[in-house]
Design goal:
Blueprint lengths: L10 E7 L8 E8 L5 H14 L3 E7 L5 E8 L8
Antiparallel strand pairs: 1-2, 2-4, 3-4
Length: 83
């Protein structure tokens, strides 16, 4: 049974997939964190999603005013029929 992850307390603004290209297909999600949120808590949540949800950090950005955005991605597993 798959382990259910706790929801991110941050705003998950976008989620999309890539496809139709020659390379691997990826699923992306953007996590937005406000300046008042604890950096240690944000790191812990991102680490949990990386470990249990198989997400990897693609990009991070700090904006003026302290807002942070993290782009996470994971490979889409394609299952082939065996019968």
């Amino acid at each position: 049974m798959a382990q259910q992850l706790p929801p991110l307390p941050h705003a998950v603004s976008d989620r999309w997939t890539t496809g139709g290209r020659a390379g691997p297909d990826w699923e992306y999600v953007v996590v937005t964190c406000q300046p008042h949120e604890s950096l240690n808590e944000v790191r812990r949540q991102l680490a949990e999603h990386a470990e249990y949800g198989k997400w990897e950090l693609r990009r991070s950005r700090i904006y003026g005013g302290g807002m942070r955005k993290y782009w996470l991605r994971r490979r889409i597993m394609k299952v082939r029929k065996t019968l």
